[in-house]
Amino acid sequence: MGKNVGVRAFSLHPGAIFTPLLRFMAHEDYGVVCALNEQGEIKTTAEAGFKTPEQGAATAVWCATSPQLEGRGGVYCEDCDIATLMIEKDALHGVMPWAVDAESAHKLWKLSEQLTGVTFNPDES
């Protein structure tokens, strides 16, 4: 809807990132996020399959600069690419089919306009 005025928006998932914020977690919570090894010790970033903060930021930077996204918007990105459609319900990567449904997007847009009292009509810009 903002394409006519040059507005582009993307959703993205940076991935699971092992940051110093985790220091505030209780030790047993590391097990919940699969970050403990068999000896109960905290895994390294690589062992746990987490990204570094720099790797986590990469998709946001890619969305802001990628020629692949030129003139596009409304896509979901992960791992420095446009996410593929999730086929398996419990898959860890991809975008759920309902998240790219045009009819649902239109309903959400209209509801957002009603709730905020702001109507965005790009034809009048």
Oligomer: single chain
Number of helices: 4
Beta-strand residue percentage: 5-15%
Overall mean pLDDT stands at 82
- Roughly how many Å is the radius of gyration? 19 Å
Shape: elongated
Largest sheet: 3 strands, mixed
Short characterization:
With 125 residues, the protein is an alpha+beta fold.
Structural summary, described in words:
This protein has helices at residues 27-32, 45-48, 53-65, 102-116; strands at 10-13, 75-78, 81-82. It is α+β, with helices and mostly antiparallel strands and 125 residues long. The mean pLDDT is 82. A hairpin with a 2-residue loop joins strand 2 and strand 3. The relative contact order is 0.18. The N and C termini lie close together (12 Å). Strands 1-2-3 form a three-stranded mixed β-sheet, covered by helices on one side. The protein is elongated and about 60 Å long. It has a domain at 3-13 and 71-124.
Descriptive key words:
125 residues, elongated, 3 strands
Topology of this protein?
Layout: E1 10-13, H1 27-32, H2 45-48, H3 53-65, E2 75-78, E3 81-82, H4 102-116
Parallel strand pairs: 1-2
Antiparallel strand pairs: 2-3
